[in-house]
Design a protein that fits this description.
It is a single chain. 40% of the residues lie in helices and 20% in strands. The protein has helices spanning 2-10, 12-15, 53-64, 81-89, 100-108, 137-156, 170-181, 202-214, 216-226, 265-272, 283-293; strands spanning 26-33, 40-47, 69-70, 79-80, 110-119, 125-133, 187-190, 193-198, 231-234, 239-243, 254-255. α6 (137-156) packs across α7 and α8 (202-214) packs across α9. The longest helix is centred in the middle third of the chain and has 20 residues, at 137-156. The chain starts with a helix and ends with a helix.
Length: 295
């Protein structure tokens, strides 16, 4: 689940720019396994915030008041937990699907634990949100189901093979569709480990790595995610990517490159407002906030 959320968030610098309340220059995601069945925590940090003063200040105010939205700036592609929860509650009982119950549990169990504005070492305005997800398995199932559905539909349409990340040969493409028909688990949670299992050939895996070295766009979109990998197993018929937390329980951070778009105008507006500033977030401080919430 951590990876499913991370995959979506890594693309946010491009996706959230449409109709968003503000933008950011850099993003960092830290993920943590919580003890027992308490779920997972996600620390989202956006550095170098900029935007139209009045609109952005009000959006930041809503964020500080605990608004449950990812990304916090909204935009064309965003997820409003409160809105989703209300819409599901208004559905007639007869129209509810079997999976709606699990979805509602996921929405109920997803909350913002701590949030704040701060200045980084460069003096830029930044924000952080510490999220807690009590039902991570829902997102894993959703990701696997929809990935399989998409591939099966492409196979049924007879979509022609076109080389591209991560399928660089036809054997890998056909194998992916065949595995999707079997209900392949692209992401699995095994104890504290996240395992990504992609049914591609060794040759296709080599092309993926070559592309990451040679293509700047690919490095920006996928390379940031692979930078948090613990180990990589390239086999004859599959490549397995392992994500394992360190002794602290946190996974290696996922970072987006600096887009270089920062401007000081919004910082000046925030200083002139009544919005509070916080110290820069540390993983130790986030752990303390998570422990307090368990009491």
């Amino acid at each position: 689940m951590k990876l499913a959320i991370a995959l979506a968030l890594v693309a946010l610098p491009a996706l959230s720019s449409c109709s968003s309340s503000f933008g950011f220059s850099e993003m960092e995601i830290d993920l943590r396994s919580l003890p027992g069945k308490d779920g997972v925590a996600l620390l989202l940090v956006e550095r170098g915030i900029y935007g139209k003063r009045e609109v952005a200040v009000e959006a930041l105010r809503r964020m500080l008041e605990g608004q449950r939205m990812l990304p916090p700036e909204g935009g064309f592609i965003s997820f409003d937990f409160e809105k989703e929860q209300k819409e599901l509650a208004l559905k007639p009982s007869a129209s509810l699907k079997p999976e709606d119950g699990a979805y509602l549990d996921f929405l109920h169990g997803s909350r913002v634990q701590k949030t704040g504005l701060f200045l980084d070492e460069k003096g830029r305005l930044c924000l952080f949100q510490l999220w807690r997800f009590a039902k991570p398995e829902y997102v894993v199932d959703w990701f696997n189901r929809n990935t399989n559905k998409d591939l099966v539909e492409k196979g049924d349409r007879g979509q022609s093979f076109v080389p591209g990340f991560p399928y660089f040969d036809e054997v890998s493409w056909k194998r992916a569709i065949a595995r999707a028909r079997e209900g392949w688990s692209w992401i699995r949670l095994e104890d504290r480990e996240i395992l990504v299992d992609v049914p591609i050939t060794r040759e296709s895996a080599a092309e993926c790595l070559r592309g990451l070295l040679q293509q700047e766009d690919l490095r920006k979109s996928v390379g940031t995610l692979l930078g948090s990998v613990s180990s990589l197993d390239v086999e004859e018929d599959r490549t397995r990517i392992h994500f394992v937390p360190d002794a602290s329980g946190w996974y290696r951070p996922i970072r987006s490159p600096d887009e270089g778009k920062y401007q000081d105008g919004l910082l000046e507006a925030v200083k002139a407002s009544d919005l509070p500033m916080s110290p820069a977030p540390t993983l130790e401080a986030m752990d303390r906030a998570l422990r307090v919430s368990n009491r």
